[in-house]
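Model it.
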Amino acid sequence: MPLNQPFTRSQRPLYEVKAGLFKGLSHPLRIRLLELLADGEEHTVAELQAQTGLEASHLSQHLAVLRRHRLVESDRRASHVHYRLAHAEVAELLAVARRLLVDIVTTDRAMLDDVAGLPALTR
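Modeled.
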């Protein structure tokens, strides 16, 4: 592969799927939905709506994005649609992201403490 090309023609679809994964994760409400589903159970739309407080149309849009990017799966049973994680690894990814969040917030907190120790500014 030439040095000026980021990937080969055959690799591009794989990177597009990977980018889609991150697009699915790119909204705070979708992350919350995935966290709710990370308990390993199936949840109905009504349960997810009660947990998030989202209007049905907004919830449906976010769930559609998660389905499109293969992060969740759904089954219709009678008049209810049940959602679950498509892969157990999504829960693992969320756990790693949570640990990273804690590290970042801890670092930011330390930086805030450093700012508090700066000399006062005078006008």
